[in-house]
Write the structure tokens for this entry.
Amino acid sequence: MTEIFKIGFISVSLLDIIDIVLVTLIFYKVYSVIRATIAAQIFYGMILVLILALLAQAANFKALGWLLKLLSDIWVIAFVILFQPEIRRLLVLIGRNPFVRMFIKNDGANVADVISEAAFELAQHQHGALIVIERSVGIRGVAETGEIINARLSKNLLRSIFFPRSAYHDGAVIVNNETVEAVRCTLPLSSETSVNGVELGMRHRAGLGISEQTDVISVIVSEETGSISVAEKGELKSGLSKEGLRNYLFNAITVSRKNGLKNILSAVKKNKFSTGE
């Protein structure tokens, strides 16, 4: 690798700079995950032990060096045991990265099952609901109009959110992959006030409105009739059964992910030919 500059007898190449940047990013990510936790104090203590071990070895303190080396030899096992919750959080953050999710097999069946079960049970009790499922394009701006919770998607969570006495039952829930990203969100209303001669309430106009503006699927449960509807690409489909909703969501999410990967590959191919490679 070509040398870029030199500090004394140390030569620095482009590969060295990349290496330093990557290590810095890793340490920063670890620090951001464990910051303001008890694990942070333990982490600092372990770093101090490692530094002392290096200093003892350099000063040729054999007894102290042996003791500190004994501790440093088992630091990997201690790290896994002590930082188990933080490691789990870090892996979850990595797994949520859109680039990583492209290589993870996820057919959308779980999302379709959970939302269809929750919508059916909410409809049985005539509890109104509005669930927006993100697809190829994120809607962070819409999510920020509500309260960000980033909770694991589950039927009981959705039922609790839309229980009439819940503090979060008003507004929409934003679902991103298998995560409830935000609750009590405000959506843009559609200019349409009726579909096929049927007057639309605010919940249906909101679900239809967000589907007109971005690539999402809105699941609407009517508080008045208990009917289940789906809005996609500015079109409203009503009167769905639990199984009908499940099949609709499964097919829509699966097609979206296939098209998303297809679009990425097409863009890469287009860029390759445009640059003459």
